[in-house]
Amino acid sequence: MLRAGPLALAAPAVAVLLVFFVAPLTAFAVYSLLTGAFYEVSGPLTLDNYREAVESPLHRTLARNSLLVGLFAAVASVVFALPIAYWLRYTRSRWRMVVMFLIIASFLASYLVRIYAWRTILGSNGLINSGLDQLGVIDDPLTFFLYNRFAVTVALVHIYLPYVVLVLYAGLAPLSPAYLEAAQDLGAGRWQRWRRVVLPVAAAPVASAFLFVFVLSAADYVTPQFLGGTSGGLLGVIIQQNMTAQGDYALGAAIAFSMLGAFLALYGVVALALRLTRLDRLRFVS
Amino acid sequence: MTGPGRSGLAGAFTVAGVVFLWGPLLVVVLFSLHSTAALSFPFRGFSLRWYEEIFSSAEVRSAAENSLIVATATAATTLVLGTLAAYGLTRTSSRARGPLALLFFLPITLPGLFIGTALLVAFARIEVTLSLATVAAAHLVYVFPFFFLIARAALDRLDPALEEAAADLGAGRWLVFRRVTLPQVWPVLVGAACLAFALSFDEFIITFFVIGPDSTLPMFIWSTLRRTIDPSINAISTLLLLFTLLLFVVTFALTSWSERRRRGSAEPLVVPALKDAP
Amino acid sequence: MSGEARVRLEGVSHRFGDVTALREMKLDVADGELLTLLGPSGCGKTTLLRIIAGFERPTTGRVLLAGEDVTDRPAHRRATNMVFQRSTLFPHLDVFGNVAFGLRVAGVPRAEQRERVREALQLVSLEGYEHRRSHELSGGQMQRIALARALVNRPQVLLLDEPLAALDLKIRLDMEAELRRVHRETGATFLYVTHDQREAMALSDRIVVMNAGAVEQVGTPAEVYGRPASTFAARFVGDANVLPVDVLDVSGDEVSVALAERRRQVTCAGARGGPAWLVLRPEAVQVGRLAREAGADELTGVVRDVAFRGTGFQYRIAVDALETELKAEAPASSPELAVDERVTVDWTPSACWLLPRDDDARAAGGPLPTRQETPA
């Protein structure tokens, strides 16, 4: 048998991914350099789409929204998830497995159902307002919950929090309780243990979870449609519109790849920061 | 109890997190049983009328059937291709190993919007008519990394000495795989396939671009949400939730059972799989 | 013992749920001594160490460090430092960062940190390793860095929780010598936990033999080995034979005992008439080929197993009319006996030790309920 034997088993999967992933993305990239007509593209190669993608005031506003929502959602998810992951890793509570189950299970709850649930809760006729009204706290419904960046951010945190918890939990897994005991034994109080041991060790998983949430939030096009209103639109929405109703494939592609470029730049910055602090590849012994 | 693991604050965050994650979902379940169409307090009493409504809807039924078809096709294909790929990659020392693992992981890093739009233009270009088949192909790309990471983690953690022992006893490659490898990892593979099924069943972001005239359950929910506020959405959502929960229980049980069988501890393989992500 | 004890435990008990890990422990650790807690796993020795370190709070009792009650103080506010069984060198810090960890937390100025880390690394013979990471060190080096990381803080007492257990035998022996040297050079107080009696003997000024959450005996290695205070101590330290005998008569230190219906002589101070345990070290047992008819009071038996151990032969002998097999060691120069060979068994009267025995203890077959503490 050939020495490449075992590797040949991966061939079907490679073929599928080349055909349905690599090739379409390549085609999409080429489209971004052509001139778009109605659901059609034609040559010659041009950078006009990118110019429009970056210069249009609408795109700039949406890009700013995407950046803000992405940042808020990513920061909030990580800040919320870190203590939960810490608890899951180090607790001796008998509820540990139950909580683990609930968090992984909620990961699979339908994306659309979550968006719908938050619309039900935050709406002017929604649960918070009707509840407060019933209690006599307010007379007129509070409208600042829904149709803005806040609502979009809350829903996105709700969608991605379970994933972030699991990534951070997995990141803390090799940091056995003995390391925290060693730190405590050397005089580190609770805050010092977080600052000098937990956070440095969690830095790489935190960065990867942060990027994950940022990218998926910034590129979301469904959540802002239902919860964002006029002030909470994101860049994903304009890509989706160009690819469907507007039919301008070239412009849609150019916006998408501009966004991807921004993501890659951000990824590069984060990876470099981890590299320089030597926190990117920690090797645990024992 | 003392020790550095004790932290009231982390416990409080955990409770808040579970409430935050499950509260909104339970609200949906609660209002699926509401006797009136109102989605606000006060709660006027229980009834099953919304369930009756969706069960009698031909539109819902056909959407659910389509979702089942797509998810089954996706999960089955992923199970076969993913297992082969993971086995191949864990049993080779070839230099292609790293780049291939990266290729298999890459779709997870890209927002669904990109995969959906790229496939949309590609299908248009080569004049493939959009159908449930194109949806399944797109889903395959989307769920493959999840399956691959879990399967590879499971295969990586097997003791190679067992396979060597079987080979030493005269078993060929196929026999080793069937008699030694597979019996150890099948629960994890089936569990990961269930996960693939659940992800596909619920997928909307990519589906939106590559579906033709057909509908799936998420598509149906989306179009209903756009039109009106229809309380039957609560009932569909609840059933969807129960269904994915059921699938998840199977996954969780299978993976943690196989873990416990392996080394006496219960840690679902989702977690080790995440550790291996590049 | 002169002056105030470095560590004093007063009536320390600890329970995990229904399990009693420690009961009414009383212990003084003197300034500058190397004291070992020796016992089988589950005897409570590690729990005791963790109570002194501050990781566990005792259910009852008090912990005093240099006369000060620290029972309610958490680990990071105690002047104790620990070397753990497995490496706990922080993977995100290099050797310097690890050793300086406690100094940084305490806010020691940079220049002083550098100086003290350098001294500490010199002490463990690892100068120049400042910028290595833990995965670039061998197991023995990691534990030496862990030792430096603890000692650099100048703790009241250094706690060592089986620090050599994960190392290979050869490195373990080198590390024992290294520990003895560091102890000599620093004059610090070491509290050492191990289940390895050989290690305990090689290292300690004093040994505390522990069993089932309580102290069996405290004494120097020679005392614990030569005059065990209980059958448990006798069996655990030095793997002694413990045989049931009856003391027939006592004249001074000369005692006559009945063993398997034979009358034998033993030298032991303070023996009383009645049932007793005879403690017999394997190396005190003399085994000879049975060449003639045995005398009336002579012990005979059959060789069941032989193992060559470099320094000599190790035998297991089924003694006639005794239920247990007797362990014996013979020098390498002695003629080797074969399995199934019939032999005579004898011993030097002065190499034995007697312990009181009552019927309960015999029925239980376990350690004696009465414990003596050898004065230190």
What does it look like?
The complex is a heterotrimer of chains A (286), B (278) and C (376). With 286 residues, chain A is mainly alpha-helical. Chain A has 13 helices and two strands, in the order ααββααααααααααα. Chain B has 278 residues and is mainly α. Chain B has a single domain (57-276), classed as MetI-like fold, CATH 1.10.3720.10. Chain B has helices at 8-32, 49-55, 58-90, 97-109, 112-125, 132-156, 160-168, 173-202, 207-210, 217-227, 232-263, 270-276. Chain B is globular. In chain C, 24% of the residues lie in helices and 35% in strands. Chain C contains ten helices and 20 strands. Classes of the chains: A mainly alpha (286), B mainly alpha (278), C alpha+beta (376). At the A-B interface, α1, α2, α4, α5 and α6 of A face α1, α3, α4, α5 and α6 of B.
Based on the model shown, name its key terms.
heterotrimer, A: 286 residues, mainly alpha, 13 helices, 2 strands, C: 376 residues, alpha+beta, Rossmann fold, OB fold (Dihydrolipoamide Acetyltransferase, E2P), 2 domains, 5-stranded antiparallel sheet
> What percent of residues of chain A are in strands?
under 5%
**Overall tally of structural domains of chain A:** 1
> Radius of gyration of chain A over alpha carbons?
23 Å
Low-pLDDT stretches of chain A: none
Any idea of the CATH topology of chain A? MetI-like fold
SSE layout and pairings?
The complex is a heterotrimer of chains A (286), B (278) and C (376).
Chain A: H1 5-8, H2 11-31, E1 35-37, E2 40-42, H3 48-55, H4 57-90, H5 96-107, H6 111-122, H7 127-134, H8 149-172, H9 177-185, H10 190-218, H11 223-228, H12 235-243, H13 249-276
Antiparallel strand pairs in A: 1-2
Helix pairs in contact in A: 3-13, 4-8, 4-10, 5-8, 6-8, 8-10, 9-10, 10-13, 12-13
Chain B: H1 8-32, H2 49-55, H3 58-90, H4 97-109, H5 112-125, H6 132-156, H7 160-168, H8 173-202, H9 207-210, H10 217-227, H11 232-263, H12 270-276
Chain C: E1 7-16, E2 19-29, E3 34-38, H1 45-53, E4 60-65, E5 68-69, E6 80-83, H2 95-99, H3 101-105, H4 110-123, H5 139-151, E7 157-161, H6 169-186, E8 190-194, H7 197-203, E9 206-211, E10 214-219, H8 221-226, H9 231-236, E11 241-251, E12 254-259, E13 262-267, E14 274-280, E15 285-289, E16 299-308, E17 312-319, E18 325-331, E19 342-347, E20 352-356, H10 359-364
Parallel strand pairs in C: 3-8, 3-9, 6-7, 7-8
Antiparallel strand pairs in C: 1-2, 1-4, 4-5, 9-10, 11-12, 11-14, 12-13, 14-20, 15-19, 16-17, 16-19, 17-18
